[in-house]
Amino acid sequence: MRWGVRFALLRGVRVDVETEFASISDGVGGPGSPTDIEPVLLRDGSSVVIRPLASGDEAAIASWFSGLGVETRHARFLGSLDRLDRRMLSELAGVDHVDREAIAAIARDGTTVGIARYIRIKPRRAEVAVAVGDEWRGRGIASMLLERVTARARSAGIEQFIAICVASNHTVIRVLCRLGPTMIGPSDAGVVELRIDLTRARSDRFRPGPASGGRHDERRSCDV
Predict the structure, then answer these.
(1) pTM for the model
(2) How far apart are CA 195 and CA 206, in angstroms?
């Protein structure tokens, strides 16, 4: 299995949220502009601002990474990772809002609490990933971020997402399956590959199946 690019989602960066809200009225268009800033009320009554990640924001990525626990890092990077080197920081901050996109959720105190991103790997295919800070899980942030990054991917001509997930991470797999009809490959060392069709209606059903108990010969669908 090709595990592909290792993505990172950002947490812990401080921004001026009031300035972000005020800048919505500036009227500048285009990906990553102030008109993309979206205040959102979450299901528990808290709120975040959703906006594209600024290109080159390495400080945000480093700050987020420092707040991740061992298990979270393992799930996010598919292995043990103590730090991000300069090359990884540069890669993860290198968004162009067409072939490389990242959408962030930012709390009112300026903390980046979640990121969904894709990287185009073929003309109509991209790898996708999402992660939300531990204290902000269960509020619907991952779903909102993925919906928005999927809309941007479709507008950029992407028809299929590839996602590499820990096989036991049923929550993330379930959320990804809702983006479109999804095929899940056999478990390989506790990791599975999802292929998500963005050209058809999404799937709302998911049967987890075995998490990591050996290899399986058949691909399975989220719709079974």
Answers:
(1) 0.77
(2) 14
Tell whether 40 is covered by a domain: yes
pLDDT tops 70 at residue 198:
yes
SS3 content of the chain, % helix, strand, coil (to 5): 30, 25, 45
Q: Are 216 and 186 in contact (CB under 8 A)?
A: yes
CA dist 168 and 44 (Å) reads 27
At 192, which CATH number? 3.40.630.30
Q: Coil, strand or helix: which one is 149? A: helix
* Contact partners, residue 114, CB within 8 Å, separation at least 6: 9, 11, 48, 104, 105, 130, 131, 132, 133, 136, 141, 142, 145
Element (H, E) at 4: none
- The pLDDT of residue 208: 53
**What total number of domains does the chain contain?**
1
Evaluate the CA torsion angle 57, 132, 72, 130 in order and state its sign.
Answer: negative
